[in-house]
Write a structure and sequence with these properties.
four-stranded antiparallel sheet, transmembrane helix, 7 helices, membrane, transmembrane, alpha+beta, Nuclear Transport Factor 2, Chain: A
């Protein structure tokens, strides 16, 4: 027989439940025991708890990891990938900071190799020469330089125009995969004062080995 109040098993002849102190009702206790045990199997009516299965947990973890990977990929895709706008952004960085690395990133690597062969300089010497040119070119702009710019419409160059570009460099650049003519407008401020500007200038960018560069002829 079991207590009709808490389900505690009762000793034969007991008048009160040893667990909750409720008075024993033999008729109610006997009738209650069967129903209580069906609803609450186990000792003293303990309720069994079920956790998430390993398979379900693995699926949840997998979904979370996929979401994280997707977010990282989108961040890279939006902010770090190389597009036809990349060399123009590097050009702005050169204007603002006279950044030698950004300047070198404008020039196709194949063209740099040709320059090394023609000048007899190695890559470090070319970088030093470029840095000197940048410093001298911005001598008149002493102060904090800030460039506001806009990259406008881009036009795909035709196959014949691309072939003409390849001919201009006598094949040194190899096959140009793609090329665009891009509108570029800017205003350059030095210590907050407008010192130079350009409106809808046409810059040509070329794609070699999967990367975009500024056409060396535009520099």
């Amino acid at each position: 027989m079991f207590c009709s109040h808490c389900g505690q098993e009762l000793k034969e002849g007991g008048k009160f439940c040893p667990r909750c102190g409720a008075p024993v009702d033999p008729a109610a206790g006997a009738g209650f025991s069967t129903g209580y045990q069906k609803m609450n199997p186990g000792p003293q009516g303990a309720v069994m708890k079920k956790g998430v299965s390993p398979a379900v947990a693995a699926v949840i973890i997998g979904v979370i990891l996929v979401c994280i990977a997707g977010a990282v990929f989108m961040a890279y895709f939006l902010f770090f990938r190389n597009t036809y706008k990349t060399p123009i952004k590097n050009l702005v960085k050169v204007m603002e900071d006279q950044d030698t690395d950004a300047a070198l990133a404008l020039i196709p690597e194949r063209y740099l190799k040709v320059m090394e062969g023609v000048t007899g300089m190695d890559s470090d010497e070319l970088a030093d020469m470029l840095e000197d040119e940048l410093i001298s070119g911005f001598d008149e702009y002493t102060g904090d330089i800030k460039v506001d710019y806009d990259i406008g419409d881009a036009r795909d160059l035709t196959d014949s125009e691309i072939q003409s570009l390849e001919s201009d460099y006598m094949g040194y650049l190899g096959d140009i995969e793609d090329a665009k003519e891009v509108e570029f407008s800017y205003e350059m401020y030095v210590d907050g004062e407008l010192r130079d500007s350009g409106e809808d200038e046409q810059l040509t960018v070329i794609k070699l080995d999967g990367k975009w560069y500024l056409n060396p002829g535009d520099m």
